[in-house]
Amino acid sequence: MGLNQVCIFLSLICATLALDTVVNLSSNSSALLWDGEDSAYLNCTSHMKADTFVWKLNGAALPEDRRYNVTSESDGLISILIISPVSRTDTGSFTCIASNATINETSNALSLNLAWSPDNLHIACNIESKKNNSPIQLSCSWVGGQPAADVTMIYNATEETAKNNITRDIPPTGDGNSITLLCEGVHLRANSSCNATVGRPQSTDNKNNTITSVKQGQTAVLSLSLQSGLYAQFEWFHHNPTPIKVVTGGKYKIESNETNSSLKISEVTSNEKGTYECIATTAIGNTSFTFKLDVSQALDTVVNLSSNSSALLWDGEDSAYLNCTSHIKAETFFWKLNGAALPEDRRYNVTSESDGLISILIISPVSRTDTGSFTCIASNATINETSNALSLNLAWSPDNLHIACNIESKKNNSPIQLSCSWVGGQPAADVTMIFNATEETAKNNITRDIPPTGDGNSITLLCEGVHLRANSRCNATVGRPQSTDNKNNTITSVKQGQTAVLSLSLQSGLYAQFEWLHHNPTPIKVVTGGKYKIESNETNSSLKISEVTSNEKGTYECIATTAIGSTSFTFKLDVSQAADSGLSGGAIAGIVIGVLAGVALIGVAVFFIVKKM
Question: Where are the alpha helices (DSSP H) in 530-584?
Answer without folding.
Answer: none
